[in-house]
């Protein structure tokens, strides 16, 4: 297996909804495992997500889970998930879905470096950056 780097997001009880939303946005195959699936069937968090993974045909992998009860939320929340490329229609589609039920901090528009770029936070509190490269003619 080739090494890879991908985001692993932590949620406060709504990982299932978030991961299902990302499947709607990006497509792909979603696998979700609950704490109950791993031997904690009687625990109060048995129905919460212990590990979720979305793998898409575009080569994206996004993982996520619910923060276990009693554990502090992870440190280092200064992050954004970045989507970039030159497929205008694909990236605009992602932007519309991610920002549609969230909030936009930087509208998706042409920037000083020539590309179209925008920043939003989706309805689950995850910050996204989208950069659509323009080809030089």
From TrEMBL:
Domain of life: Bacteria
Gene3D superfamilies: 2,3-Dihydroxybiphenyl 1,2-Dioxygenase, domain 1
Occurrences of domain Glyoxalase/fosfomycin resistance/dioxygenase (ranges): 5-130
SUPFAM superfamilies cross-referenced by the UniProt entry: Glyoxalase/Bleomycin resistance protein/Dihydroxybiphenyl dioxygenase
InterPro entries cross-referenced by the UniProt entry: Glyas_Bleomycin-R_OHBP_Dase, Glyas_Fos-R_dOase_dom, PhnB-like
Residue segments, region Disordered: 61-83
Protein name as it appears in the record: VOC family protein
């Amino acid at each position: 297996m080739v090494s890879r780097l991908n985001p692993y997001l932590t949620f406060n009880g709504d990982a299932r909804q978030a991961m299902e939303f990302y499947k709607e946005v990006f497509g792909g195959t979603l696998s979700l495992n609950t704490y109950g699936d791993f031997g904690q069937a009687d625990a109060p968090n048995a129905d919460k997500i212990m590990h979720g993974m979305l793998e898409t045909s575009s080569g994206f992998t996004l993982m996520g889970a619910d923060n276990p009860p009693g554990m502090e939320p992870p440190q280092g929340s200064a992050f954004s998930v970045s989507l970039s490329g030159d497929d205008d229609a694909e990236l605009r589609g992602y932007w519309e879905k991610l920002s549609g039920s969230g909030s936009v901090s930087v509208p998706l528009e042409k920037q000083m470096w020539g590309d179209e770029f925008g920043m939003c936070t989706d309805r689950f509190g995850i910050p996204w950056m989208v950069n659509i490269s323009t080809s030089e003619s």
